[in-house]
Amino acid sequence: MTIFRLLATVTLGAGISMAGLWSIESSLPSLRTHLAAAAAERMPLYYRDPSGAPAWSAGSRKDDRGRDYLPVYDDDQAAPEPAKPKQQADSSRRILYYRNPMGLPDTSPSPKKDPMGMDYVPVYEGDDAEDGVVKLSPGKIQRTGVRSASVERRTLRIAVKAPGTIQLDERRVSVIAMRAESFVQKVTDVTTGTRVKTGQPLMEIYSSAIAAAAAEYLSTINSNLVGGNAVYGRGSRQRLTNLDVPEPVITAMEKSRIAPVTVQWSAPRDGIVLERNAIEGMRANPGDVLFRIADISVVWALVDVAERDLGNIAVGQPVTIRARSFPGRTFAGSIAVIYPQVNKDTRTVRVRIELTNPDLALLPDMYVDAEIDTADPAPLLAVPADAVLDTGSRQAVLIDKGDGRYEPRAVRLGRRDASYVEVRDGLSDGEAVVTSANFLIDAESNLKAALKSFADADGAQSAGGDHAGMGEHK
Prior knowledge:
The protein is α+β, with helices and mostly antiparallel strands.
């Protein structure tokens, strides 16, 4: 502004005419003298870096390349504003600690500077009105990727998985054994693994005991005195039944009135021949098992459930069975029996699951994997599993209170599935919890709590010192 005033004064003094140009030219030495004096009278406010970097100096200096810092005057509007003066500490409030000016998790109990020369920011008593609440700036929330989800009731798909094997239904197994000394006369074309039907012939045997009982029965029913009275022949018939003679053979004897030399034995049920010990011409002693037949249209899956999951299972729960021999195929069943014994070596409990096996695909001793559906049909208050901070002895979540404020809260957990976990205590429906970057917020919350306890301890120690000083003064 001073330069313009000088120019205006000189111009007006010389006159606005062509003739006045000579006067202006003649007055240039005097103008230079006035400009130099005016520049000497002006004092620079500060000096700035010649390259435009955010660096200033109160006095004249040179940068690392030897260039002079540029002066900035009061009327120099093009120059950037100088750094704001440091904020004076508020002496009316007690300083708890000093935090890093860049927001890093670094604090100091006394004033200090960071590696860039910036002063640590004081944190006063009362700035943290909410104990344990962490406050983040929008920029930091975006950089750390903080995400939140609402707490709501949902049906959890909780499944207990356990390995097992296929076993025969004990109620569907039959054996053919002789109750008297016998000889195998003939064996039909039946081998181990053959599927048989009820009544299908298996072998023919000769037994002197059976022949004698048959002859006695026929003599009774053929007698002229007692043949017409069924009561007299009841004992003889019962003897044949006790020798396990098939009912069709006894019926045929009653019709033909002839005692057969050999007796034909047939299959007592539909099933698969598991054992064939009968050989033509062999002698069978009482109790010898000649055939063993099992019906596998219904089988058992015996699975071993871990002891920790015993409280979640109950009789009647649906079960999905997957056989390793048939990938992608499932078999439906339900829990029939929970055995009342824990295996002391494996700490498991055996569970019996009944399965229908219409195409006989499931075979005995086949390995299977069971998935027991233990879900409660009633919706449960649940949060995403990623929202839980679990240290083993402590389970907590971070509550999103809005405006960048996050509060850690202890919770009591319940059952869980692959994605969600039940919360039995500590949360209410509709609250928001942090699901990502919660470990970073939790670490900052722990640091804040530690600093607060440090500040409280320091304040208590100072108060104790003041009381001690007062005692000495007295």
